Amino acid sequence: MAQLPSRIEGFAIVSEDGMLAGADGIMPETLKFDADQKFFRAGLDRCEAVIHGRHSHEQQPNSPRRHRIWVTTRVAGIERDPADAKAVRWNPAGASFEQAWAALGLDDAALGVVGGTDVFGLFLLRYDVFHLTHAPGVTLPGGRPVFPGVPARTPEQVMREHGLRHGAEQLLDAARHLTVTSWRRQ
After folding, report:
1. CA angle, 2 then 98 then 71, to 5°
2. Could you give the 3-state DSSP secondary structure of residue 71?
3. What is this structure's pTM?
4. Residue 3: predicted pLDDT
5. I need a surface site. Which of 36, 88, 97, 143 has the fewest CB within 10 A?
């Protein structure tokens, strides 16, 4: 049986009100910054696998080389994706994450979590690190939050409540005041 991931990293850019997409589930152009995309791409290139929901996909040049778990309610538990030999579809209500990870057959591999809300929420107690970028000056009232419980609580409050601690901040784009904070498990 395959071991669990050697590392679990989450990646998200959110509006000032903690949203990662509009009400339609689509990331608006106002949340897309070249510097953040470069950071995201470099982070995922350290991961052998990704996990995402229906609206999320990393859509990067190296995407086809990565294994993936697609979280969906359209399967009973776990099944291979007929369109992608490196992918499995997983319903958390019908199988454990350990079973989904084992279905990928990876050992000593890192997992990148790329969203959406429910997927990010599934891993709050498992992240080794969560890289959170805030888009300055962008709000998305009625949008899709990064974690369950947002906006009643901030993304930072949710991460603290789940054992993640504020870590290093990195300036991505000085002209746009764009920074990413890496929240780490203690």
Report:
1. 120
2. strand
3. 0.94
4. 83
5. 97
Q: Collapsing DSSP states into helix, strand and coil, what is residue 174?
A: helix
Are 33 and 178 in contact by the 8 Å Cβ rule? The answer is yes
Bridge partner residues of 80 (DSSP): 88
Closest of 22, 18, 16, 17 to residue 143, by C-alpha: 22
Q: Residue 164, CB half-sphere, CA atoms under 13 Å: how many?
A: 26
**Residue 41 DSSP SS3:** helix
Residue tagged 């350990």 (tokens): 98
Q: Are 11 and 113 in contact (CB under 8 A)?
A: yes
Residue ranges of domains in the chain, CATH in brackets: 7-54+63-185 (3.40.430.10)
Identify whether the C-beta of residue 122 lies closer than 8 Å to the C-beta of residue 110: no
* Tokens linked to 10: 């989450």
Tell me what pLDDT residue 177 has: 95
Task: Outline where the chain has alpha helix (H).
Answer: 34-44, 97-104, 117-122, 155-161
